[in-house]
Amino acid sequence: NPELIVTHANPAVSRLLGFPGAELPDEAQDPASAANESQDENESNRSLSVLLQLKSGKDLLDDFKKAIRQQKTVNRSFQNEDRILFFQVAPLLDEDQKVIGAVALLRDVTAAEKLEQTRRDYIANVSHELRTPLTALRGLIEPLADGLVTEETDRLRYYSIIQNETLRLSRLIDDMLELSRLQAGKISLKRSQFNIWEILREVEAKYQAIAEEKGLTFALPPYRADTPLVYSNPDRIEQVLVILLDNAMKYTDAGGIIEIQLGSESDKLILAVKDTGKGISADDQQHVFERFYKADRSRGRSGTGLGLSIAKEMLNILGERIWVRSYLGHGSTFYFSISKLQSSRMAPNTQEQGGQGPRNAVD
After folding, report:
1. Residue 198's pLDDT band (cuts 50, 70, 90)
2. Nearest to 230 by CA among 346, 314, 84, 124
């Protein structure tokens, strides 16, 4: 009311504001119980001075005064502990347009604000990642176009850098589109039964030579003929494995070891990519699956920062999970799950196909 005494409030106000002491009165409060309170306690409960217990309390109290005295609606967003709250107070008028008080609406907008911040960060990161190769391309093309690069060896070097930056820009755009489609649910990932060893052998054939070039030791787990079939999307599982191996080789120095490990838990196979690289700090581990996040900023140009985000989104769609364990100076291990084939999903002729069948055969 005009005397800044609270006449009505619901319990949600106290919950949202987290008043440490007296709560604002509920209009449904039992009059008999209220009468038993002392006058001081009653006034303490009903007065807007309760707001002053909050960090932003004085501002909120001023908003009430402004709404009543200036007859205008006042909006404010403020933070209370880990919540972001929207506060709107408007004047209350009687039939003669006379101010008889003010009413406030309090809304928890934490999720919406975090989403908006994520959107702003995403736009900023996209702009930065696109600007970097474009700036490099411009810096190389302009002297070539102006005829300032006369030596053939220098021109060839410039062309090589331009080609690499163009490929990097293309990869970035492809990754952004892939991630957007995954998050929008526009990609359908069909599942089928297959033998995980077929993928492991394909990956070994691709990465053994790359590892040797970099001076790394690359190892697969010991072969086991009793490894159960899995039920997922083989192409996407291989893509996740490639993302993890690329990261491991990127951040492991010559002489290091990269190995794929294979484990099992209830109805899941667990694939792990372990390296002896520099490791990831505990703080960075909380963010490594976020878009554009790069734990090693000094090597930021070595990738798009989207690989792990893509891996996580694909595995989420497949009903799987991915996680990391790492210690600075002691390497990292990335794990992800793959569903084992349940007997009810097995094709009637699986046993007849034997060891020479396609992806659904056990060696």
Report:
1. very high
2. 346
pLDDT of residue 230: 94
Cβ neighbours for 106, distance < 8 A, ≥ 6 positions apart: 12, 13, 16, 17, 85, 86, 87
For the sheet with 83-93, list strands across it. 74-80, 83-93, 99-108
Cβ atoms 275, 332 nearer than 8 A:
yes
Give me the half-sphere count of Cα atoms (radius 13 Å) on the Cβ side of residue 20: 6
Residue position matching structure tokens 């053939």: 152
Average pLDDT for 321-350: 81
**CA-CA distance, 110 to 123, in Å (whole number)?**
20
**8-state DSSP, 354:** G
d(CA 272, CA 261): 5
Confidence of residue 268 (pLDDT cuts 50, 70, 90): very high
Query: Between β-strands 257-265 and 217-219, what pairing exists: parallel, antiparallel or unpaired?
Result: parallel
The total of other beta-carbon atoms located within 10 Å of residue 307's CB is 21
Q: What is the largest CA-CA distance in the chain?
A: 97
Element (DSSP H or E) covering residue 12: helix 11-17
Least confident of 265-274, 289-298, 321-330: 289-298
Q: What is the pTM of this model?
A: 0.56
Collapsing DSSP to helix, strand or coil, 263 comes out as strand
- CB neighbours of 304 closer than 8 A, spacing ≥ 6? 129, 168, 171, 172, 175, 176, 292
The answer to whether the beta carbons of residues 305 and 293 sit under 8 Å apart is: yes
Spell out the residues 6+ positions from residue 130 whose beta carbon is closer than 8 angstroms to its own: 169, 172
Backbone angles phi, psi at 81, to 5 degrees: 55, -120
